[in-house]
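wait is this the right file?? whatever heres the structure
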């Protein structure tokens, strides 16, 4: 089945440059006249353009990292899961984010702001012209009109949600907004909820045949549940998650690795995914996964660019398990840490032998590449040869965003193998299981929470063992919990499982913030990780760092109507 083709150019779109009059009224170049859009075909084209910003790309392939749908930078590299990577001096504004020293001129923040607001404006234009067409064309199918409105409103909710998680205080711009600049100090969560509730009420349970990239009712339910979860409305979220789970196969039957396989996309675990394609639609790499294009090993790697986005020591060690096959929920995984060959002399590295006796959750070697272990079908990960800057990112490499060497042909951009056609899952079924488990735990339904977590763990136990020279790359063990004795234990177990299952997928920092534990977690992390990467020894997370500064250019364009976040 084909994906809906997310066109990346604007069709009579408005450039989302700020909250000034130009932000609301400036027409894009190569504008189509209204008469060309006041038809069902024109409205459908506008809607396709609204989908087009899901990959974070407004024009060209370079520079889309802050707006990447994977949220590798703002969701992972500023958390305890990952590093910016690469080397000193490369992308200093990313480095500032990693050590929690952002400012209002950071281009990565501007990048997210502009692209998400461009997406919002495209959604608004779709809704405006839909109203015009419905008024003038009585033959417009009412059911399709409702679906178009629902798709546009769900996409708008998505863009707003990405913005509010990062900036907290953002202006609400709708199809009815007429002000030249809009106050950003009002809670927009109610508007996000209303958009998603409308989508749930007006979308069909499945996407149209042959257009699997379109949002549907199941995706809307999952997203609405997630937004309720962020608001701590657990009893509102849980029925939505249960509906999603009930309509899909059991998680144990769905291979974990399929979520990151370009040949197995849009399977039953995919709930809402950004569709990427390369070359076949004439766009080159523009419709590909441009947000992750820097995040590959270097040297002799099958795709070598550019050494960014590396798993942390802390994350890798968090996959260690007890003799009972359970996680170290008390942070004792940091004792006797595993560090691969990091810090060894050249002679020691030349004689390096992988310790295959360490007990790991098998998901480690499907999440992070480490020396001596097979890496997809690329061969054995050789260590330093694939690392660009050891002192910046450490010895591990990312894996979930990487495609197999045997799949490079046909799934990468023309002349740019680091731009792949790999989709990005915004919400997948395991995420829904764990969000449902969180709701159950917070509601005091501890056996139900444990059952959901154990189903995720049962699937992990089925993962094929990764190989190294001499046999299995570790002693792999992942067993079920036998009890959740109290709510505090259940909460910790669910949160830890979420880290293991969804590591490097863009959720971690936002989870820490909504759980209210970001500052403590990052303080402990900097103390541990700084023993290996010295630039982190002076890193400090303050309370204000849960959110980021509003880009100064946007404040200036608003004439001061936009207010800066506290502390910046």
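ok assuming it is, sequence goes like this
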């Amino acid at each position: 089945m084909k994906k809906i083709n997310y066109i990346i150019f604007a069709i009579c779109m408005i450039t989302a440059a700020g909250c000034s009059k130009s932000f609301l009224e400036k027409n894009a170049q190569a504008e189509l006249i209204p008469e060309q859009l006041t038809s069902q075909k024109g409205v459908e084209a506008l809607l396709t353009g609204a989908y087009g910003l899901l990959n974070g790309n407004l024009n060209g392939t370079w520079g889309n990292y802050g707006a990447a749908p994977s949220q590798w930078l703002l969701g992972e590299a500023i958390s305890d899961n990952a590093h910016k990577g690469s080397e000193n001096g490369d992308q200093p504004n990313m480095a500032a984010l990693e050590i929690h020293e952002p400012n209002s001129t950071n281009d990565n923040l501007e990048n997210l702001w502009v692209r998400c607001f461009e997406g919002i404006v495209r959604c608004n234009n779709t809704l405006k012209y839909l109203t015009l067409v419905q008024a003038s064309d009585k033959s417009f199918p009412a059911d399709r009109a409702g679906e178009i409105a629902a798709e546009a409103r769900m996409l708008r909710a998505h863009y707003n949600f990405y913005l509010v998680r990062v900036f907290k205080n953002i202006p609400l711009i709708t199809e009815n907004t007429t002000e030249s600049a809009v106050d950003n100090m009002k809670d927009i969560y109610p508007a996000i909820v209303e958009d998603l509730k409308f989508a749930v009420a007006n979308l069909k349970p499945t996407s149209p045949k042959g257009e699997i990239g379109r949002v549907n009712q199941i995706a809307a339910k999952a997203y609405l549940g997630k937004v309720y979860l962020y608001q701590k409305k657990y009893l509102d979220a849980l029925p939505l998650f249960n509906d999603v789970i009930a309509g899909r196969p059991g998680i144990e039957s769905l291979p974990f690795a399929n979520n990151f396989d370009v040949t197995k996309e849009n399977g039953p675990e995919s709930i809402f995914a950004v569709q990427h394609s390369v070359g076949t639609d004439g766009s080159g790499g523009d419709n590909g996964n441009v947000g992750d294009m820097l995040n590959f090993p270097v040297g002799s790697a099958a795709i070598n660019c550019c050494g960014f986005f590396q798993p942390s020591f802390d994350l890798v060690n968090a996959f260690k398990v007890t003799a009972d096959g359970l996680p170290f929920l008390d942070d004792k995984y940091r004792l006797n840490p595993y560090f691969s060959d990091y810090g060894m002399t050249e002679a020691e590295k030349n004689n390096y032998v992988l310790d295959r006796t360490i007990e790991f959750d098998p998901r480690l070697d499907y999440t992070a590449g480490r020396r001596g272990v097979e890496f997809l079908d690329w061969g054995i990960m050789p260590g330093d040869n694939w690392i660009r800057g050891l002192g910046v990112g450490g010895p591990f490499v990312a894996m979930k965003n990487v495609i197999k060497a045997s799949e490079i042909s046909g799934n990468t951009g023309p002349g740019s193998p680091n731009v792949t056609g790999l989709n990005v899952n915004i919400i997948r079924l395991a995420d829904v299981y764990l969000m449902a488990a969180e709701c159950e735990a917070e509601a005091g339904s501890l056996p139900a929470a444990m059952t959901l977590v154990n189903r995720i763990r049962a699937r992990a136990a089925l993962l094929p063992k990764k190989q190294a020279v001499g046999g299995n790359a570790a002693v792999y063990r992942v067993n079920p919990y036998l009890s959740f004795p109290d709510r505090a234990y259940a909460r910790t177990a669910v949160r830890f499982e979420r880290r293991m299952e969804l590591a490097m997928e863009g959720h971690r920092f936002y989870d820490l913030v909504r759980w209210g534990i970001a500052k403590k977690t990052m303080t402990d992390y900097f103390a541990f990780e700084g023993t290996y990467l010295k630039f982190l020894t002076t890193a400090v997370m303050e309370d204000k760092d849960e959110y980021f500064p509003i880009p100064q250019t946007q404040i200036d364009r608003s004439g001061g109507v936009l207010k800066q976040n506290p502390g910046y």
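The longest strand covers residues 270-274. so i think its the right one actually
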